[in-house]
Write a structure and sequence with these properties.
4 helices, alpha+beta, elongated
């Protein structure tokens, strides 16, 4: 894989971990065969970040408000693999799990971790998106214009 492909793949799994429900992530992480030891580079800490928006998606940026986040960084013991976890809210355990999964995805255990944790999370996310889209589609109103024949 090229560096760009590695970066894109990591961006995808970090995004999935950041938005995964805490209880689902905990249950799936408990299924991992062996949980490696690690050292904290940055223990879980709670803070806030400024969320920015753009009018119409393309306009000038503006500060929308602050959001609480929890972040951490860890290094797998006996290697130089570093994992990072950023999650919305004040859930330190969820940030730790996200960082551990990030680190494991950079090792030889990546295939097993993907099958055990990431694939089920992605399936649940896609199912939730589909359900939300179908609820929205049920309220859709179609407008059409009939030719009046006077023209």
């Amino acid at each position: 894989m090229t560096q760009a492909e590695n970066t894109e793949a990591r961006r995808n799994w970090l995004g999935l971990l950041a938005t995964a429900p805490g209880d689902s992530l905990a249950a799936l992480c408990d299924r991992l065969a062996n949980r490696p030891d690690f050292d904290w580079l940055r223990p879980p800490e709670i803070g806030s970040v400024m969320v920015r928006g753009r009018t119409g998606g393309t306009g000038a940026p503006f500060n929308l408000g602050e959001m609480t986040v929890t972040r951490c960084a860890l290094q797998l013991r006996g290697s130089d693999v570093v994992g990072h976890g950023y999650v919305q809210g004040r859930d330190k355990a969820r940030a730790e799990r996200a960082a551990l999964i990030d680190a494991l995805m950079q090792t030889d255990a990546a295939q097993a971790v993907r099958a055990t944790v990431l694939d089920p999370l992605a399936a649940a996310r896609d199912q939730a998106r589909g359900a939300r889209a179908s609820r929205a589609a049920a309220t859709r109103v179609e407008f059409f214009t009939m030719a009046r024949g006077e023209d």
